[in-house]
Amino acid sequence: IKVPVNKTAVVVGGGVAGIQASLDIANAGHKVILIERDSSIGGHMSQLSETFPTLDCSQCILTPRMVEVAQHPNITLYTYSEVESMDGFIGNFNVRIRKKAKSVDEKTCTGCGICWSKCPTKKIPSEFEQGLTTRTAIYVPFPQAVPNKPVIDRKNCTFFRTGKCKVCQKFCPTGAINFEQEDEIINVNAGAIVLATGFDVKKTNFFPEYGYGKYKDVIDGLQFERLASASGPTQGEIRRPSDGEIPKKIVFMA
To answer: In this predicted structure, what is the pLDDT of residue 231?
Structure first.
């Protein structure tokens, strides 16, 4: 049996696995659509301090690939987007993508940073820093983010909660803030789908016997990585989240 095959591939997940898969397929001459649910590609590798076994900086390895993905002529990148549904058959799939409203016009925004420096809502736990520090309601997750354009967290934004504020819009020099922006549904056809959705670390309710969530100084592996990172909340010094002091002993439980 022979069937026509669509020569476009969809890659779901913009971590290091999804990035490398996209580049491999794109460099082979095929079109790629890369879908990432967060506002930047990079995944958990972007949170790591150093990588085994060479102890190279993770960003030194990852960032060039992130930029290459964004600039590659064969790759279409959809960040802050999620797969709504998939159907079809081998070689011919239809993928429905929800591109979530960022409330920022990506074409107009220059990523200057004025908006998040002026945002009055500053105490939202940072997902990238694993809750060890805070971010604003309009933000980029980390300095090397790709694309380096902010999104508005509508759940915590003062304007979306109360109808007041719009400070970021007032100070934006290019008029890129758009509170009326809505989600966009995109349908694409593809011949192959690569699932590279990564992982999540188990949290409090899975390990209650260790005191995680009860004691501030019981942290998980990714939180330790952020403490060890020179770009992290403590600039690479291992300090206790409870009081900021340097611990005398550290216990690892694996």
So the answer is: 92
Residue that is written with structure tokens 């909660």 in the block: 161
- pLDDT per residue as tens digits for the range 28-39: 999 999 999 999
- Looking at residue 6, its amino acid is N
List helix spans (H) across 97-203: 114-118, 158-162, 167-171
CB 173 within 8 A of CB 108: no
- The label of the residue with tokens 């990852």 reads 62
* Distance between CA atoms of residues 128 and 134, nearest Å: 10
Identity of the residue numbered 126: S
Contact 238, 250 (CB under 8 A): yes
Strands (E), 20-74: 31-35, 50-51, 56-57
The pairing of strands 50-51 and 31-35 is unpaired
DSSP state of 215: B
- Could you tell me which of 187, 195, 193, 197 has the C-alpha nearest to residue 8? 193
Looking at residue 141, its amino acid is P
Q: What value does the mean pLDDT take over residues 124-149? A: 96
- Count, in order, helices (H) and strands (E) of the chain: 6, 13
Q: Alpha-carbon distance 103 to 122, whole Å?
A: 18
For residue 96, give the amino acid letter. Answer: R
Instruction: Return the pLDDT at 108.
Output: 96
The reply to whether the predicted model has a pTM over 0.85 is yes
What's the pLDDT tens digit per position in 211-231?
888 899 999 999 999 999 999
CA quadruple 182, 187, 191, 193: dihedral positive or negative?
positive
- Collapsing DSSP to helix, strand or coil, 64 comes out as helix
Count of positions (residues) in the chain = 254
Which residues lie below 8 Å from residue 207, measured CB to CB, with a gap of 6+? Answer: none
